Amino acid sequence: MTSSNKEIKEKQKSLLKQKTFLESLTSRYRIVTILIAGFALLIALGSLLLWLPISVQRPGESYLTHLFVATSAVCVTGLSPVTVADTYTMFGRTVLLVLMQVGGLGLMTFVALVLNMGQRKASFRELRALADAAGKHGYDDIGGYLKRIVLYTIGFEFLGFLLLGIRFASEFDPAEGLFHALFVSVAAFTNAGFDSFSSESLAGYATDPLVSLTVMMLIIVGGLGFMVWIELRNHMRNMRERHLPLRCLFSSFSVHTKVVSTATLFLLLVGMILFLLTEWTNPNTIGEFGLGDKLLVSAFQSTTLRTAGFSTVSIAALNRVTRLYMCLFMLIGGSPGGTAGGMKTTTFIAIVMMLRSGLRDEAGNCHLFHRRISRSDFVKAEMILTGYLAFILIGVSILLMTEPGIEALNIVYEAVSALATVGLSANVTPILSSVGRVVIIVMMFAGRVGPLAVIEAFQRKSIAPIHEHVRYPDADILIG
Fold it and tell me: Long-range contact list for 155-158, CB < 8 A, 24+ apart?
């Protein structure tokens, strides 16, 4: 064989791109299956690290306890059968910190960064997988989008670290206080709800504006979604360049950003007002506070319902009506494309708009901010709501059988908090049985990846329906 032929063959081989590991996975398995498996492996690794003697202050806790805590950290929930400060060493709390950060941003975000730092370009199959994992529309500039996500995360968490460090460094040993500030900052931005120094969450800082407002800011920023912040930055820059007035900012937003910002503000205000009304005279929560402190605590508790999990009052001490409406707010959750859980604000708005158009007999012409909402969006919202309700019904039913000594409302509250990855509890988590803990673990995991994703992962690969092009006559069914 001549040297020229060898060179030609070598060039041909170089042109034939070998499949990467991610490409091989996405060609063989569903993307949702890969995401679920990634979270499961991360939880398994985290639970093993927390189980090590170096992670615990004293032996005796079962592996199920560490699995529960690892799941709660990766799924950014915050429920825990043990107190983190009393159970885990500095190494164990550092493991929790990493699990919250990776779980909040998503494992695929870090995979994308590794791919983007390499010299080669990602394939279309890889771009599709990474875009789906990041919740981004379109496949353009995935690497830049994910880089901005990480930069925003570092920026906001560092700001929270500095503000919280002012308080914690003065109340604890400086080094320990700074670690607590970093831990709470990450937990707040990722909506994880863990703290590293108390058994009562942030109850000791209920009337502290610096701590409360900083944590609230981090929760809201993390729960709005990265798409909103990236769009806000781009529009602010364009307005400065074009010298446009600030009043033009909202009108220039996409419908998604308008819906997210409006729904978030509405839920925060309504949640705060309802908490004030139902807890105004409760001496065990805010009844003894002055007006300013009542407003601060109520605003904080409304904010934490965006699936953050921190609390400045005892949930068990709340009135039953307060816990009841909180279940609805927890179920709605935060916004897509961020660190929050729940059905998402956009799903809630889509369902409300669907009901409104149905009552007005305008089902075929439902619009929002002068844009028509497609029927496929309605169907997806209905499926998400049905999936969440189905998981809650199954989970609550099992818990009612395995936990007969716990009040039914508190069980519902615990189940909704787990599925929506909120992390608030009426002191139920520590007294759950082993079966009850397994149920909550499953619900936290399902809430993080999405109930529909769990169902889809166990389905066979979709094939074209037999009657895809056949249209049957309308059915004559009485509804209602």
Answer: 156/189, 156/218, 156/221, 156/222, 157/182, 157/185, 157/186, 157/189, 157/218, 158/185
pLDDT at 15 > cutoff 50: no
CA 82 to chain centre: 22
Q: Are 447 and 77 in contact (CB under 8 A)?
A: yes
d(CA 229, CA 295): 27
In angstroms, what is the C-alpha Rg of the chain? 24
Contact 195, 73 (CB under 8 A): no
| d(C-alpha 342, C-alpha 306), whole Å | 8
What pLDDT score was predicted for residue 457?
A: 65
Q: How confident is the model at residue 130, as a pLDDT? A: 59
Residue with tokens 């979604």: 225
In sequence order, the 6+-apart residues with CB closer than 8 A to the CB of 137 are: 131
Q: Please say whether the beta carbons of 312 and 211 come within 8 A.
A: no
Mean local confidence (pLDDT), 48-54: 95
Instruction: Name the residue among 413, 346, 410 with its Cα closest to residue 377.
Output: 346
CA-based nearest residue to 192, from 459, 430, 447, 479: 447
Compute CA distances 456 → 28, 41, 330, 342, 451, whole Å.
15, 19, 24, 18, 9
Other C-beta atoms lying within 10 Å of the C-beta of residue 374: 11
pLDDT digits (tens, 9 = 90+) for 205-227: 999 999 999 999 999 998 888 88
Handedness of CA 9, 11, 16, 17 (dihedral sign): positive
Cα–Cα–Cα angle for 284, 289, 292, nearest 5°? Answer: 140
Here the contacts of 6-10 (C-beta below 8 Å, separation 24 or greater) are none
Q: Which of 261, 252, 240 is nearest to 338 (CA)?
A: 261
Are 443 and 473 in contact, with CB atoms under 8 Å apart? Answer: no
- Residue pointed to by tokens 């506070």: 289
Distance CA 206, CA 156 (A): 22
Residue 371 backbone dihedrals phi, psi, to 5 degrees: -135, 140
Please tell me the distance from the alpha carbon of residue 102 to that of residue 346, in angstroms, as a whole number. 24
